[in-house]
# Entry
Amino acid sequence: MPCQHLVETGMPDIDALWADFARPIANADDYIASLRGRRMNVFFMGERVPEPVDNPVIFPSINAMAETYRLASDHPDVGSVHTPIAGVRINRFLHVPIGPDELVAKHEMQRELGRRTGTCFQRCVGLDAIGACHSVTFDIDAEIGTDYHKRFLGFLKKAQAANVVIGGAMTDPKGDRSKPPHRQSDPDLFLRIVKRDADGIHVSGAKMHQTGAVNSHWLIVMPTMRMTEADKDWSFVGALRVDAPGLTYVVGRQTNDTRGVDGGPLDAGNAQFAGQEALIVFDNVFIPHEHVFMDGEWQYAATLVERFTTYHRSSYVCKTGLGDVLIGAAAEAASHNGVEAVSHIKDKLVEMTHLNETIYSSCMAGAYRAKPMASGAYLNDEMLSNVAKHNVTRFPFEIARLAQDIAGGLVVTMPSEKDLQNNEIGPLIRKFLQGRSGIDTVDRMRVLRLIENMTIGRNAVGYLTESLHGAGSPQAQRIQIARGMAIEDKKARARKLAGIDDRRRSGG
Amino acid sequence: MPCQHLVETGMPDIDALWADFARPIANADDYIASLRGRRMNVFFMGERVPEPVDNPVIFPSINAMAETYRLASDHPDVGSVHTPIAGVRINRFLHVPIGPDELVAKHEMQRELGRRTGTCFQRCVGLDAIGACHSVTFDIDAEIGTDYHKRFLGFLKKAQAANVVIGGAMTDPKGDRSKPPHRQSDPDLFLRIVKRDADGIHVSGAKMHQTGAVNSHWLIVMPTMRMTEADKDWSFVGALRVDAPGLTYVVGRQTNDTRGVDGGPLDAGNAQFAGQEALIVFDNVFIPHEHVFMDGEWQYAATLVERFTTYHRSSYVCKTGLGDVLIGAAAEAASHNGVEAVSHIKDKLVEMTHLNETIYSSCMAGAYRAKPMASGAYLNDEMLSNVAKHNVTRFPFEIARLAQDIAGGLVVTMPSEKDLQNNEIGPLIRKFLQGRSGIDTVDRMRVLRLIENMTIGRNAVGYLTESLHGAGSPQAQRIQIARGMAIEDKKARARKLAGIDDRRRSGG
Amino acid sequence: MPCQHLVETGMPDIDALWADFARPIANADDYIASLRGRRMNVFFMGERVPEPVDNPVIFPSINAMAETYRLASDHPDVGSVHTPIAGVRINRFLHVPIGPDELVAKHEMQRELGRRTGTCFQRCVGLDAIGACHSVTFDIDAEIGTDYHKRFLGFLKKAQAANVVIGGAMTDPKGDRSKPPHRQSDPDLFLRIVKRDADGIHVSGAKMHQTGAVNSHWLIVMPTMRMTEADKDWSFVGALRVDAPGLTYVVGRQTNDTRGVDGGPLDAGNAQFAGQEALIVFDNVFIPHEHVFMDGEWQYAATLVERFTTYHRSSYVCKTGLGDVLIGAAAEAASHNGVEAVSHIKDKLVEMTHLNETIYSSCMAGAYRAKPMASGAYLNDEMLSNVAKHNVTRFPFEIARLAQDIAGGLVVTMPSEKDLQNNEIGPLIRKFLQGRSGIDTVDRMRVLRLIENMTIGRNAVGYLTESLHGAGSPQAQRIQIARGMAIEDKKARARKLAGIDDRRRSGG
Amino acid sequence: MPCQHLVETGMPDIDALWADFARPIANADDYIASLRGRRMNVFFMGERVPEPVDNPVIFPSINAMAETYRLASDHPDVGSVHTPIAGVRINRFLHVPIGPDELVAKHEMQRELGRRTGTCFQRCVGLDAIGACHSVTFDIDAEIGTDYHKRFLGFLKKAQAANVVIGGAMTDPKGDRSKPPHRQSDPDLFLRIVKRDADGIHVSGAKMHQTGAVNSHWLIVMPTMRMTEADKDWSFVGALRVDAPGLTYVVGRQTNDTRGVDGGPLDAGNAQFAGQEALIVFDNVFIPHEHVFMDGEWQYAATLVERFTTYHRSSYVCKTGLGDVLIGAAAEAASHNGVEAVSHIKDKLVEMTHLNETIYSSCMAGAYRAKPMASGAYLNDEMLSNVAKHNVTRFPFEIARLAQDIAGGLVVTMPSEKDLQNNEIGPLIRKFLQGRSGIDTVDRMRVLRLIENMTIGRNAVGYLTESLHGAGSPQAQRIQIARGMAIEDKKARARKLAGIDDRRRSGG
# Structure
């Protein structure tokens, strides 16, 4: 599905851009096939990746994304939804939520995908970008008479019909964090419009650690923070194909990313699924007007960011699905060791569950308390969404620690699958790594490798570090909590109970 | 409103029992008036309390209960609700919730009352007893053909019409905790039926630390735990007037309970509101059949307890209302000290809010996810309700610690209000306890006393210790979390991702 | 032992000031006797206290102080030490430590006194003031040729010989915390010299929440923070008799301070021992030059404060003695309930012990690592002393929470001792509050009251809130930790391991 | 230095065993050279490793061990000590501590080596094995007249003279953890004596995850737990050469172990240093009597384990050296981002330091409080050593979380060093990953890679997971804390303060 047309003429029309997607993606296999044959500049570990689908390090991330299609096929009630926009049933990852129940259903889907993949399935950023753009474009149009919302709906309808993966691209390099875009020594440190012409805009710069970027079909680029009037050229939103001319991708290294290659599926721990983050560099990339949803309206950048992060912080409910897997793995490891019924082991499993369900409840409460915006889209409760994400920055670390506690030191000292295959030492390992009677030693090793994978291996990247920084670092949530905490009302309540309102009478 | 009839004849009919409540309680003043003139055996600090309403230590607890009437008057949308049972609008504390939205509304009411009183307003136990009895009586009838549900609805309709306070009485003395009721050396250590006759049952024993007991009109007594067949005489539910012959109340001491008496309103910290717990002793107390809702069906004791605690653990959302007050008080104290804008102070206020809202979200999520039972009543999600309460056993302690941190040591070293009134030292205190310019020194003292009240004073009883033990101690929640955590499903998820399902093919 | 001479002449000589102490205090009874008959202006709850020893609320604090004498009598190895200054054996609370072993012994004494009293025994502030003054006066003299150290030694020798209690007074009211003394709207908000004359200085102002003030014989007043040149009149150190003319004391209210009075020893929980804090107001109080140890040398105020707090933060090791008592009380309560062997109970006792010993080890490590100062006195390691105190601001709160968890709700709902004495309800309480077989119900109540006393009662003031604020609030420790954390060295270590030192060769 | 003699004759004499070590190891280079040319059966990732020194994955662990020699050369005061056994100055890792000060010095050395390597330098197990064997052999001899202590001293003198690395081998596979050795279905699941003859013993079985095994010269094998009489054949201690016939080593996989190979030094994060754990399989391995220090005295197994773990748990003070590096790395990363002065960043650095120094103080306090045993060796305070290690199972996880919080998401999404070297994308990475002005982008990457290395990379194995399980998992410490917590004394203290001792008089 190469973006050939663009390359040749340099100036696409919209229909041409969508021509490759005429036949909607029907299922997971179809999705994987759709990624083949694109001419993208993708690099990993210093080398161009000619076909990411065939790269064994990248493929598990594609497969995790594919699970979003599988779920929609297997459980359409969970993974798909009817949209009034196109009037058809679509993958829920392309849906603008129009009621609390739809946000609840979204979060259930995310937890289930966490359970199915044990990693980041990468499709939430785009989903939450859709949600945020829907209402913000509506608001801009309503206030200053633009037609962004119409453009956006046009784009979204096509994307829904084609059942494509939309990636959301927000985080800029930012350079010196004490300076706004227009005062950076290098203006490219925030993605910016370098040229406007009759057909659209041309943008340069970069977006950092973009989730699932290489596995997407389209990207929505958005500003990363509050802007000022002088930052107009950095204040825009647009959608573009991931294979648009001028884009370069550098896939980041993850902990143990090569385990499946240098070791094998056992060493990988979770051989089927992984996440993906990439640096995307934009070199004079063209976006036609039809795909531009904000162009210089710097006043709306903060609103867009806040709505996006409110959606996205609650999307971290997915980590409770990973938590389910890790709790199960710890229990399984304890069972292999014959200690599942020991009181301190049971108590640790309860603690892990308690923390996991606390995260879940804060995410879900924010969904149930969603409020409608002018566009009709519903937004999670902002305070609770921040509280939810803030718990995500803490509890998975403790859950992971407890999982390692239960599993034992073998998690980090175990021989390789290749040792198992060696005639001389394979039998020794099978002999000495056996657990309680009746347990297959290799199964025991598999579970321990899964725990390694999620606590200090490849998917710990998503379960732990991404839990800290994705959708905003801890301090970002604290700032939002401070804004929303209605401290003056709380103080008034306290003064009343302290008897201060009565002071003129009582005389103190 | 003395229970005169009962005293004289010894054998009431139901109408007589309700005769005193013919005129419904219209508002808070009416409620307070309704408590006067009852012939109850109430003791406090070694002395009979002739009229609890006039006892200055007890009155703040009555006033907190009265706030449930005030709220219904001031904000009927919050404090009252239409009931299909009687077909009228009633106080929400007498309502059986028949949808998630009603549990949500209940929790909002509870948080608001927490904000208004800064203490335990004592009416939730009865409310949650109503909820639990509604469905359990329905189930017993359905399974074994009794008519408990009809009796219960008859009782409830009268209570709703009269707008009375129903207390719930569950916790027995329990004696040797390793033994069931029928094996206790003293059979009275669990409340029990000592005689059954044509009119009803006669019960003896005690209930421990009963919330708001003296401030109620009726009590529902319930078993405290799972029973066995040999415990049939301890397995019953009944409703009785708090002034029934044979009842004795001993009001427990609370931290700083006498502050308002020996000091004054300033020393009390929160002079208007407090909680109440009492020991209730039952000496051959009669309950007519019409008010008996379980009589020997020991198999349902566990179900009743579980449903009650599921309701009641979520009711601890009220503590987030207390949290609001305490956060506000800490912010006010910081403002008086001129340090509200200091970064570590702001950060602590954010942390307090984060913890408070985490409790809130776990309570609310469990309400939104309520499920209907056969009787039509809705019950909070059991896992989330336990998770919510478990957070309540932790976070208020940290919120209180942070409040004291912000407020400073004066919280526990401050002179008395009586010192302020002393001509010699009053001026010295006003001079040396002044905060930043423009702050009334006495107001500063009031806020600090409120913080004392909630963290190491009278209402710390409710905010901290009751948060540990009310509705079940921490370990009780852990047991329920263990039961609900679906560990086998979690293990299966882990095995699948670890590749164990594939082992026959891969050969390990 | 009235300060008669001073009252009459208005201008004492040093010998007259010490005349009352000619006969050294021999033991605890002698100490208590020594407090009688002084003409001090002491107020409590709005009334003048004619004889504090006879005041039942104040006496437990005197008795806790007396325990420092009892320990020296019972265990001279723990409670006393040989001093090279006077060449005799003295109470350790009057000793300047001249080796790490002496700081270790001091801390062992403090923990033991914590175990013996379950409260603040109030004599450490003076002890640590002695330590700080010894070295700072030496340094001032060495640098600017004053004779403060000689004066100080003269004072100390007399105090050691007389075996008196020295209180340390540091904390000023401070008013607007953003302003130094000389910029306060009211100059008295920091204690200051209002007049200097040939004989000495005259000081006015106040010191806040002074530990054991009324129970002391002498006070050492010290500046509370770093001073500037404009604050010279606020930069002084001096020793004065607690019954000096011009002093007024207002004893602060503590949680449950009147329990022993309105309830009885059982209700008090710990009837024998309590702490004490008072506001001291100074009205033109005279200090003769011989007792002035700093007079305007503002440059040394910060040093004095830092040394004092370094000593004093480690002195919070006493709280581990309280922790021992509370752990024991929780275990005893569990035993009474018949659940001491239950796994979660045992686990909580272990956790409490772990936290308690963590505090202990951080205090002790700082003592062992003490370094000598120019005067020969040894000072605890500053970093570890701050770390120790910072742990004290956290762990006692968790220990207290766990104690309440183990003890159960009865801690805050139990009837009064007076109820026990009531003929009608006393037997009922004995019947229904019984624990496992063989346990005296009243003993069970006593232990629960002790837990109340230490977690939400009178001695929770010392165990919890004072643990936060005494010797500096948490943020004060964080500032000192930041100063001492040698971050540049740590960064250099990191750069080296990251390979940054090699960058010129490797080319990066 | 091949073990040629042994291979040929099959029956060594002691002199022959030591012949290869006639020339003492002089320094780090000498040490590394000493590892070459040995005929050991070492496997890694399914392949025999002909020369571990030349294996790029293994070498960093050798280099970390070599740092113990470098330190002794560079700072003999820290890394070496005079021994009365041989009467000469030796590497401190071969020294039996004979005073608290020597344990203190040992811990300072360990922290310094942690700072120098940022990983596990692997020589402490052997050191602590020496300490434990010294006293236990003494005690056995004293009680039952054996000559183990003399044998042990003979061995130790040679080892000290040769300056070799001694590894300690304790952890057996253990199979079904609910069964003692003699009841295992496979007797080899604990290392055991399979034959005794005139010259010595022959042992078979395995030891799991042995630290630095391949990098050692000698191993001391010890029982792993309390034994019973039926376990006599599993109850022995012996020293053997790591190249003894019959030994096989399987080096375990570590997180990111291949980073230096597939990426390069930048990707490795800490290219110079790493830890090592191996499975050691014993197939009928001979140990001559002269090197057997316990042979069937099962009663002493528990004592040996307890003394070893008491030493070894305090040895985890090394992690504070790693903590220093990680705190420094976080501060450096913050500096690169231009946010080092931001209040929440500073506060997190303080918190990391506070936790790190808390660990340090609990380790050090236990050293200072060491007590002598009959042999003259000093042993750390047991309670504090367990408390110290227990803190190590918690705080490094929080320190690591905070380091990642400060460092930002780039820690886990950064491109490879090979990308930097690519002409096309290298310049893009340098452009877009730049931090604040003046910072070399590659240096910034290096620091972030170091943080990855220590928190979710190769050395996180040692800093986090090993901190949980090394020297005993958390529950092992809790058991020891429970044993040492003197709960009866604590209960007695509580009873006394509660007034229970007075009950006969007061009448309760």
Notes: The CA atoms of residues 434 and 441 of chain D lie 5 Å apart. Confidence is low (pLDDT under 50) at residues 1-10, 502-508 of chain D. The longest helix of chain D spans residues 343-368. DSSP finds 22 helices and 14 strands in chain D.
